[in-house]
């Protein structure tokens, strides 16, 4: 559940408090991208999954955070995590610094709030930036993940 907590805080920031017209300001976290989707929640999730596959990657797991929070009595709007990757990149990681295996798969978080639907993710260059032999891979994957995000934000 520890991995859910940072995104939970992020998702809750989307919901405007009574009388507020803007989402709460959150401090920027290094390497994290947050963007509003032009689609409603369910369509954003579907479009992202399609975009992941169009970039030659695989959706390896989805997590319904809304359903998990309901299990502990908390009501939220839509909140889903999408994990994705491809073994061809895993091979590069294993050949160059197998310790970076903990950083994969990549994740996108889709959150529905009063102001609309937002996506959040970490840039691969940030994730792999601490691994000397994987910096180039991180930069390469930045463009791939950016194309995925643009499927719902442009």
Layout of SSEs?
Elements: H1 4-14, E1 32-36, H2 41-54, E2 58-64, H3 65-70, E3 79-85, H4 87-96, E4 106-113, E5 116-122, H5 124-128, H6 135-153
Antiparallel strand pairs: 1-5, 2-3, 3-4, 4-5
Helix pairs in contact: 2-6
Pattern of helices and strands = HEHEHEHEEHH
* Total strand segments: 5
Helix content: 40-55%
The named CATH superfamily: TT1751-like domain
Number of domains: 1
The biggest sheet amounts to:
5 strands, antiparallel
The gross shape turns out to be globular
Write down the Rg: 16 Å
Give the termini distance in whole angstroms. 32 Å
Strand ordering within the main sheet: 1-5-4-3-2
Any idea what the CATH architecture is? 2-Layer Sandwich
Give the structural class. alpha+beta
Q: What is the percentage of strand-forming residues?
A: 15-25%
Helical stretch count?
A: 6
For the record, what CATH class applies?
Answer: Alpha Beta
User: Could you name the ranges where pLDDT drops below 50 across 5 or more consecutive residues?
Assistant: 1-24
Mean pLDDT: 87
Could you tell me the CATH topology label. Answer: TATA-Binding Protein
Protein model, in words:
The protein has 154 residues and is of the alpha+beta class. The protein has one domain: TT1751-like domain (TATA-Binding Protein). It has six helices and five strands; from the N terminus they run αβαβαβαββαα. It has helices at 4-14, 41-54, 65-70, 87-96, 124-128, 135-153, and strands spanning 32-36, 58-64, 79-85, 106-113, 116-122. The protein has a five-stranded antiparallel β-sheet with strand order 1-5-4-3-2, sandwiched between helices. Strand 4 and strand 5 (116-122) form a beta hairpin. Helix 2 (41-54) crosses helix 6 (135-153). The N and C termini lie far apart (32 Å). The model is unreliable at 1-24 (pLDDT under 50).
